[in-house]
Design brief:
Elements lengths: L2 H60 L19 H4 L27 E4 L7 H5 L1 H4 L1 H28 L4 H21 L19 E4 L7 H5 L1 H4 L1 H28 L4 H21 L16
Antiparallel strand pairs: 1-2
Helix pairs in contact: 5-6, 6-10, 9-10
Length: 297
């Protein structure tokens, strides 16, 4: 080969080597650029995922309580044993007196419940002559009161021995208390216009007294007269107040033909307390007189 051809071949090979180097450099640059771009994309994806996660956490924190997953409910408390409920259970059997109705309130099983029909229209003629109309009941009540007093004395001795009133005495004293209450409600408190029946046990009347005698504390029975003194003072004070206001109450009912509801409720509360005081004195209950300002609903 001639020298000229050799020189041309060397130049050609040199050019090819330079071109190959340039191509390799370009390829290397392209690869590095692609690697950088992928790294940038990965970091951007990580940042985006972190932002989304933070946004979800913020939404969960700000979400209202209703949308949050419900908390686990606490296990229900164990039901009380039967023995724990016996103290508050109603006495067995129907009440000894009064109509068979569902009682609205009993603080204790032997709490005396006094029921009223509610204020209604009253005939002015019967209101005007109420004291005269009630005379036969007053006479009968006076006679029955003598027997009831003797029965209460016998019952006091029996309660000291037995810790409760005998059933026969309890029934009679409960019926006497109901009859006395009905006469008072009709004649002196003007709470009803229905004439009281001449019976100790008639259930169909506007005023009822339900008693359920139970166990009695013998010490409380022995000192019953002393224990009654505070309640007696309250009864006397309200009795004097009622006597002063009696004429005005009578005039209101006579003119209006009925008793206003507020006045009816006040007089019913006084009579209810008086009845519970008498029941406590007759040993028909161990529950101290209460309800002067009304019973809970």
């Amino acid at each position: 080969m001639s020298p000229a051809k050799k020189a041309a071949a060397k130049k050609t090979s040199a050019k090819k080597a330079v071109a190959a180097k340039k191509t390799a450099v370009k390829k290397s640059a392209v690869k590095k650029s692609a690697v950088k771009k992928s790294a940038v994309k990965k970091s951007a994806a990580k940042k985006s995922a972190a932002k989304k996660s933070a946004a979800k956490k913020a939404v969960t924190k700000k979400a209202p309580a209703a949308k949050r997953p419900a908390a686990k409910k606490a296990a229900p408390a164990p039901e009380p044993e039967l023995d724990d409920l016996r103290e508050f259970a109603a006495p067995e059997g129907p009440p000894l007196t009064g109509p068979s109705v569902v009682e609205p309130y009993r603080r204790r099983p032997d709490t005396v419940v006094v029921g009223f029909e509610g204020p209604g229209p009253q005939r002015r003629l019967t209101v005007a002559f109420r004291i005269i109309l009630v005379v036969p009941h007053v006479i009968l009540l006076a006679l029955v009161s003598i027997v009831a007093t003797l029965a209460a004395i016998v019952g006091w001795f029996a309660a000291l021995v037995l810790g409760r009133l005998p059933d026969g005495l309890a029934r009679f004293l409960g019926q006497f208390l109901q009859y006395s209450t009905r006469v008072s409600a009709y004649a002196f408190y003007l709470l009803t216009d229905r004439y009281p029946p001449f019976s100790l046990s008639d259930p169909n009347y506007a005023v009822s007294v339900n008693v359920a005698p139970g166990r009695l504390n013998r010490a409380a029975v022995f000192f019953r007269l002393i224990l009654m003194i505070p309640a007696y003072v309250v009864v006397v004070l309200f009795q004097y107040g009622l006597e002063i206001a009696a004429v005005f109450i009578w005039l209101i009912v006579l003119v209006a033909g009925r008793m206003p509801t507020s006045l009816f409720e006040a007089l019913a509360a006084v009579l209810r307390y008086n009845v519970r005081f008498q029941a406590y004195g007759l040993l028909l209950t161990a529950d101290y007189p209460s309800g002067l300002f009304g019973d809970p609903a």
